[in-house]
Amino acid sequence: MSRIGRLPIAITQGVAVSVSGDNEVQVTGPKGTLSMAVGPDITVRCADGHVFVDRPSDQKRHRAQHGLYRSLIQNMVTGVTRGYKKELEIIGVGARAELKNGVLELALGFSHPVFFVAPPEIKVTADPGRRGTAPRVTIEGIDKQMVGQVAAKIRSLRPPEPYKGKGIRYVGEDVRRKAGKTAAK
Prior knowledge:
This protein has helices spanning 60-81, 144-155, and strands at residues 9-10, 16-19, 24-29, 32-37, 43-47, 50-54, 84-91, 96-100, 103-107, 114-117, 123-127, 136-141, 167-170. The protein is α+β, with helices and mostly antiparallel strands and 185 residues long. It folds into 2 domains: 9-81, Alpha-Beta Complex (Outer Surface Protein A, domain 3), CATH 3.90.930; 84-170, Outer Surface Protein A, domain 3 (Alpha-Beta Complex). It starts with 8 loop residues before the first strand and ends in a 15-residue tail after the last strand.
């Protein structure tokens, strides 16, 4: 039996979970509503303030989907109650980040500014940074996958390079550094 899939998902106060006839799971909470179509082989049921995910057999495909859908539904419940947040910091001389009319404008060391428009479900904020601190970009939303995708897309605009560490990185990310060339003797 799947160790993840067999665990029940606790429905917290203020969260409503409904399962339609075509295996569509809808989770509503204080921060919003999320829905997802579950595979036809997996059954989802709500009972006693918990959500249970069941599989029909021990086939490899069913075992894989069992844990996957349980984790996705847990992420939906967490998203509508607490939400998800990722923070990026921009390292480099002259690096800037500011929000203008819902468009994130980044100065990343290129000859031109880079503009990024986030999806409407995602809230992006920019902290320009003070003297001695790096500018930060914060991505918030209720959909874990979308928050991670937007953060990865912004990071890919200028990933951190291994020699000086310049670029966009997650807060707390450890960038492996390489030694540069040594001077000829």
